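#lab-general

N.A. 3:47 PM
ok so I finally got the sequence cleaned up, no stray characters, all 219 residues accounted for. can someone with queue access submit it? mine expired

B.Y. 3:52 PM
send it over

N.A. 3:53 PM
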Amino acid sequence: MNMEKFIASAIGTAPLLVMLAIITLVLFSMLSITVVIERALALKRIRGIEDADYRSIKEMLMRGQFDAVRASVAASQAPSAMTLQAGFDLQNINPDLAHEAVTQEIEVQCAELNRNLPILATVASTAPYIGLFGTVLGILNAFHKIAETGQTGAAVVAAPIAEALFATAVGLGVAIPAVMAYNFFSGRVNDLSLRVETHALDMAARLPGMRVKTEAEQI
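B.Y. 4:20 PM
back already:
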């Protein structure tokens, strides 16, 4: 009997839990939108800096203005310039170590481009389950009302079932844009990562004392 009362009490809180699930999904949606805006602005800014600084530094390298290159790299916020800076301290000591420092920094900078994207992945993967959780609770509430009243008419179960279906719809409505945004930004990040790596290795190869390994040497 105590177990039956506990279950009845738990089911009685179902409408509150359904509302809590919907509120959580709304918060997820706001978080997803925030990440989309932040990544769109950040990646656009980084790409602009990357292309502009790479052209400028490359021209200096081609002219042999290595002191100016060091100054520009130190002041630059371009990912490829940051990777080049990592090898400067070692280029006159050990070219192999300098190259390793550059390649490791390339990985660091490329990983930095993925900042906040795991949030989109988390929202995309969990939002449908939260919506489903709300759906299950809504259906349980509908059956609970049937058991209490002994009636099965639409007037009794329509509202709880509508809440349940609404929770599912909200969950899908949050998850689908998050998946699309994640895939879009993943493509942008992959493209920019390749650009950063190409620029960094190209500039490193033009520096005296900085030996860039070929793919065969790296294996």
